[in-house]
Known about the structure:
CATH superfamily of the largest domain: Type I PLP-dependent aspartate aminotransferase-like (Major domain)
Number of helices: 12
Oligomer: single chain
Largest sheet: 7 strands, mixed
Number of domains: 2
Order of helices and strands: EHEHEEHEHEEEHHHHHEHEHEH
Strand content: 5-15%
Radius of gyration: 20 Å
Shape: globular
CATH architecture of the largest domain: 3-Layer(aba) Sandwich
Distance between the termini: 28 Å
Structural class: alpha/beta
Amino acid sequence: MGAMTAQELKIGGFFGLHEPDYGAPEDSILQRWTMGREFAAFSNARSVFAALVKIASPRRVWLPAYICGTLIAESWRERLRFYHLLPSFAPDVAELDREATAGDLVLAVDYFGFPPGAEFLRFVERRRDLMFVENRAQALDTGIEPWADWTLYSPRKLLGVADGGILVSERAGRQVPRPQDRPDAIALWTAPLLRYEDRTESNNQIWHEANQEKKAWMKVDACEMTRWTSWILSHTTLQPLAQRRRANWRVLRSRLGRWLACDGNPDAVPFGYIIKVPADRRPAILRSLHRGGIFAAVHYPSLPSPAESFAAEHTLRSQIITLPCDHRYDEDAMHCVAEKVLALVA
């Protein structure tokens, strides 16, 4: 943290430029994610997923009712179906087993870094007539081996890179799409560079607005991931980031266990610490945290699934808060987060 104290830090929010550690190549994030398998690297996850749907040509595409709507592309919206989740965030296996038919594509999310549970994994092995995508957008490492036909990663949600949607083929015969050259790479890097250069983080309004502009500008396209992102992922060791995230999560668990909303495999690397609060109190809690320099997030601000059919998922969406516990911070920062949260919820 340098000379800044935990109280002075801006905790959370998007990542500034990540500095690689130049560890062993076989331990790099990109190598651990791909393990020598065929993969495609597009500008973002929604782009590579849209390209996959095009080449896989499923009859229907099943998404969990609790998901970010930006993943959905117009090119396959008419094939979209939603399925329910259990309170544990695991897919409703009974519903999928009953409704999904041969040739359908099913995407399941490793929510907040945790894999979906043994019952669903048994379903995946049993229903080989379906195609499966494991969405690891929130998972640096789930603690278990990839379980689907394809694995999808979104590195900019996990460390300081500007872009990336990486699709890995996990089974023989499962093709990946091919991206095109990227003509506008520099524009993607403005926001992470602005935050990186603001060592005192006193100009957060500037880099926050730059990141919001980038998010609005990014779209579904056929462009490849920038070479700088690939270079950082190839020169950054996964394990130190994983250890710090697990340690930070445990600190928050020791202080805020009463409000924990999502738990799972202890070997997984947490995306954030997820708390559940009353829906009518959440806006005020978020405002107070943001004023205090803790950029807690909401996953997700809205859902694409119809509320009248998926009431439980929409109710949950209005209650949970994602507290930052990533590798940028240490134990002191986590105690600072816990103290501020406790003052608001206890």
